[in-house]
Amino acid sequence: MSLFSNLSSLFGPQTQQSKLRPTLSGKLKNKKNKVTVPAPAPLAPKKQLSPPQPDHNIQEKAREIIVEAKAEALAIRSRAERETQAHAQKLEEQQRQLNQKLDRIDERLSNMDKREGDLEKQRKEIEKKNQELAEERVKLIKKLESVAELTREEARKSLFADLDEQLSKEKARFIRQKEEETKEEADSKVQEILIDAMKHGATDYVPEYTISVVQLPSEEIKGKIIGKSGRNINAFEHETGVDLDLDTAPTEVRLSCFDPVRREIARIALERLIKDGRIQPTRIEEVVAKVRQEIDKVTFEAGKKLCHELGVYNLPVDLMKLLGKFKFRFSYGQNMIAHTLEETQIGIKLASELGLDVNTVKLGCLFHDIGKVSEEAEGSHVELGVKIAKQFKLPQAVVDCIAQHHEDEPFSGPEQTLVYIADAISGARPGARYENYDAYVKRLQQLEEIATNHPQVKQAYAIQAGREVRVILMPEQSKDDDVTVLSAKIRDEIKTNMTYPGTVTVSVIREVRANAVAT
User: Fold this and answer.
1) Cα–chain-centroid distance for residue 217?
2) Which SS3 state, helix, strand or coil, does residue 506 take?
3) pTM, whole model, 2 decimals?
4) What does the pLDDT look like over 337-378, one tens digit per residue?
5) Residue 3, H or E segment
6) Does domain 437-509 have CATH number 3.30.70.1350?
7) Is 112 helix (H, G, I), strand (E, B) or coil?
8) Angle between helices 231-240 and 281-309 in degrees, nearest 10
């Protein structure tokens, strides 16, 4: 900065600047650093001019400026040379390091190529040795076969035969010992498993005995229920599918229907109609429709709750609705939801103890009685349950559990047997079910009486708890065509004269025997 300050002081407003401009511009030129002095702006004329300075002072000052300029130029040049040299040295060092790395990489590549060649050579040698060993092994086997006069397979059989003969006594002793231990432990182990299963499967349950009866506040309400010319009671029975019996007691109405859901809908609807007081066909339709929607929601929630308590999820909605109908279904006084829950817990515990497929047993116990809430009328609950299971594409093992839980078919596996056992334990435990033996015996007798009223019948037996009546004809008083005709007649009489759950199968048998004695 001193160079330019001197220049500015040199070329200030002086009288003789024009004389020094050509001389200074020629002296300040250099090969690498050129200093160009700009021409000063013309000066405004002044009235009085300062006296001129001597020429030797200006020349001396110019020489000083030139010397300083040369010194600064030399310094700049030397600094640039030093920086250039440093950069060159740095580049040279980097080049040297790069060359060293490249040399090391080339060395490693050459070593890898050499190692790869050695490995390939060793592999070929190993393959050659393996081939030689295989040929030698074949030669030795042939030599042994020729010496022993036996083939390899014959020698193996002979060796195993000798070994089996030596170990046969020990095996027999071991088997007898295990059989004795199994017999000693079997009874106690079975008792322990069953007791533990029943303990875990027991539910807080009180047997429910329901008779669909609606209490009336007074006997006059019966007139409103019947209506003019019986239109109210006819509309109610038509809308609900339930029969009303008003003759049992003065202040009660008995509802009769085998469908527990329809019977429950009719009971709730009748109670609301009696409380409301407006009993007429239009009002009956409205109340029944509203109650039906409420019952559908209740059954779905009951089925969903049952599935979640047993750890079964992602079932179709329609299937859970069917399970929810167990809430209103009773089997000999035992509520179906309580029975299903209890049986499934017993089955799960038994399957876990025996190491069987727990999921198959769980689903089999859950759906074993699903046919009891089927809307179809034809077929036993086992047949209807199998049809429902196939409709919802349940696994075949679960379908077999449903089909075999009453021994209608032979058991196809241990899981199916276990479902049958769990069902028997739940249904047979004390206090689980209530059986009206008088009504049961009366139903069996009535079935046999309907069959024996026909003259061609020799004997009739009601079997399978009243689900089948077996009829034997007298061959002398009947023909083969009577078998088909009589089975249809007995079926129609049972439908007309009896009230029964499920289905009743009529089996008519006519047998002709001929005996001849040769003397």
Assistant:
1) 53
2) strand
3) 0.48
4) 888 888 899 999 988 888 889 999 999 999 988 888 887 767
5) helix 2-10
6) yes
7) helix
8) 30
